[in-house]
Amino acid sequence: GELLSRCRLLERVAAEVSRLAFLANKGKDLAFVRSLEPRIASHRAALRDRITAALAAALAPPSPAPPSPASAATDSPAGGDTAAGSSTPNPQPPQPPAPSATRLAAALHALHAAADLGESGAAEGAVRRVLVAPLVERVLAEHKAAGGHQGSFSSALAPVLSSLLSAIRSPPLAPLLDKCLAPGSPLRGLDLLAGALLEEVQGALAAGMPGVFSPGVPPAFHANYLALRAWLGQLEGLCATRGQVERLRGSAAYSALMRRWNTSVYFSLLYQEIAGELEDALSSDKLELLPPQPSSSSSSTTPLSSGGGATQQLMMIPTPQPPQLAATAALLRCLRRAVSPEVVLPPLADRFLRLVLQLARRYGT
User: Fold this and answer.
1) CA-CA distance, 76 to 299, in Å (whole number)?
2) pLDDT in tens, 236-251
3) pLDDT at residue 99 in the model
4) Shortest CA distance to 221 belongs to which of 276, 262, 180, 171?
5) Where in the chain are the domains?
6) How far is CA 101 from CA 75, 134, 154, 269, in A?
7) Which portions of the sequence form the region Disordered (predicted)?
8) Please, which residues have CB within 8 angstroms of residue 115's CB and are 6 or more apart in sequence?
9) pLDDT band at residue 235, thresholds of 50, 70 and 90?
10) How far is it, in rounded angstroms, from Cα 271 to Cα 332?
């Protein structure tokens, strides 16, 4: 109750300070207003700190009450053997408790106060520090414990992002996101998706899972990149307006996360592999024939029905003949790989198209 009252009071004070700041800006050319600017800035900073502290207190999980002596005596084992037998070797990390309705209301009042004061960065930092950072740390710890050694863990980004999305859509973070992302919300000035969530996620992934950004293993890099793009698409699905989506894509955290993916090195590695395979096949001065392949059917045509009823006819479509030269077979393999969905990334589509044309031109020369 006391925390809720304090947050309500801070919201009212922040609204009045916002009005006073508007009036001070209107009279900024007056000498006495300029003389008050240091005091205004000092009191504004003090109010911002109080709002941030109240928001952190409202978002923090309540401390568990100490057990009573009677319950402690009842729950304590009778002997050492019983305690050893009842101990769990791998305890699961505790889940963060959902805030009560009173604490959630206090947090929303504090967020309103920060929005009225124009201090969205401080509020986003408090949400990131109190809610998002422990959530991301818990998810990464669970997947590290389940993933074994670092090599296999560094290439499995999809399950981590799936767990993060489930945690985001659960209390205590989900109610705050819903309030901020609602159309016409007075909290629309806060950007919790980018300023609190995405900023923490991209830093935690870089520190805890640096291998997912490495293009040294192209298949793993391809899978991790597509998993992240799908996850970002799900975050965009939480937005209610186009402006929110554009703000998310234009945020510094979004840009920093995408810059961690060195797609140029990824393409260079695949370019060397694909073009090198064709170059090796064309390096010989003589034409090499493919060894005879067992054919499944002796017919060189495939029947295709057309029409219907009694007038149904059969058209014979010639079946493409397999390549006779080893160089032609190598070209087909390289072309299939250069356009394969398991290789091409959306931002590199133009480069892979250029590679296809270069392969065809090299074969023709």
Assistant:
1) 82
2) 999 999 999 999 999 9
3) 57
4) 262
5) 1-61+97-118, 121-261, 262-288+321-365
6) 31, 21, 39, 54
7) 59-101, 287-317
8) 123, 186, 187, 189, 190
9) very high
10) 15
Task: Tell me the CA distances in angstroms from 21 to 38, 39, 41, one per residue in order.
Answer: 13, 12, 10
| Contact between 145 and 156 (Cβ < 8 Å) | no
Answer whether residue 167 shows pLDDT above 60.
yes
Residue 121: closest CA among 252, 261, 254: 252
Q: How many residues in the chain?
A: 365
Give the phi and the psi of residue 201 in degrees, each rounded to 5.
-65, -45
Q: How many CB atoms lie within 10 A of CB 219?
A: 10
Tell whether omega for the bond before 172 is within 30 degrees of 0, i.e. cis: yes
Q: What pLDDT digit, counting tens, does each position of 288-314 carry? A: 666 666 554 444 455 555 555 544 555
Structure tokens, 109: 């009042």
* Segment 171-230, tens digit of pLDDT: 999 999 999 999 999 999 999 999 999 999 999 999 999 999 999 999 999 999 999 999
Question: How far apart are the C-alpha atoms of 322 and 294, rounded to whole Å?
Answer: 11
Q: Mean pLDDT, to the nearest integer, of 84-109?
A: 65
pLDDT at 303: 52
